[in-house]
Amino acid sequence: MYRETMISCRRDREIRKTIITPGDYTIVPYEDSRCKIRLTDVHCRNADGVCEMEPTSRIFNNPFDGNVIIGDMDSFVDRDVELILQQMCCGEVCVARLTYKNTHGDLMLDINCRIELVDVTEEQLISDWSWARLYESAVHHKERGVQLVKDKRIVDGFRRFSKALKMLVAIEPVDKNTIDAERAKEIINLRVKLFNNMAHCQLQFEEFGATLDLCSRALKYDPENVKALYRRCIAYIGLLMYEEAWEDIQKALAIDPNDKASIMKANELKPHIEKINKDYAKVIKKMFG
To answer: CA-based angle 239:214:224, to the nearest 5?
Structure first.
């Protein structure tokens, strides 16, 4: 058995592995590689002793077929297993340990297991992917993110949207010789949807500054996007910037006068705007008699 090595270390998390049997160092997994793994001797505990496994984990819960695509996991535990796999060679067997603590240093979860990387299907590096494959991957991550948000896994959904956006960024600059105008438009539309979805996630945690930035980015590409105007309005309200919020919601209503959410938000804002106008009128009256 080899010496234990640290894969990742933070205050709240430590990931270690110890090689039992080395593998072929010329074949290692990276982004989008298909891995076949075998898990045995899995033990899970917390500060109170033996405990149940993290319920969102796909790798450590049944049914699991042993197949892992690097970069396609959502649970924090599964993503950490991906980190371990990327530090393994095809054919390698190791003992892995994943330890999680809270902000006070108390043990929340400790997983010990034996991992065998049975097979690795090598893929191209992302830098070598075609624009079509990058776009396809972005759509995949976006759709998965939407489902995670529906399942109330907001943080995991946001991570998927961010990953999709990175795929689109990798396409730039758009080569007009290989991407026609219609495809370029689809890429822009997907980018706008991702900015909107990420803004929605940020609003769930009242991160109004981040929401404002994301909506502004969406509106840069699509100035008449009602969702972006509505969500930026909410962000402005959260930042107590009522006049800016009013301007956005009025723009949204000018584009779609029947949008119920915008109508409700305008009615909610109206007393604030009336008070601002009233206070302004008082100031002017004092200044000019």
So the answer is: 100
Beta carbons within 10 angstroms of residue 132's beta carbon: 12
**What's the distance, CA 256 to chain centroid?**
30
Cα–Cα distance, 133 to 130 (Å, whole number): 5
- Contact (CB, 8 A) for 189 and 197: no
Enclosing domain of residue 174: 125-205
Residue 217 placed within a domain: no
Q: Identify whether residues 110 and 138 lie together within a single domain.
A: no
Taking the C-alpha atoms of residue 258 and residue 18, their distance in angstroms, rounded to an integer, is 62
Q: What is the CATH number of the domain that holds 236?
A: 1.25.40.10
Give the total number of structural domains in the chain. 3
Do the beta carbons of residue 117 and residue 89 sit within 8 Å? Answer: yes
Whether residue 248 is found in the same domain as residue 275: yes
The pTM assigned to this predicted structure is 0.85
Domain identity same for 180 and 266: no
Q: What is the biggest distance separating any 2 CA atoms in the chain, rounded to whole angstroms?
A: 89
The 10s digit of each residue's pLDDT in 107-151 is: 999 999 999 999 999 777 777 888 899 999 999 999 999 999 999
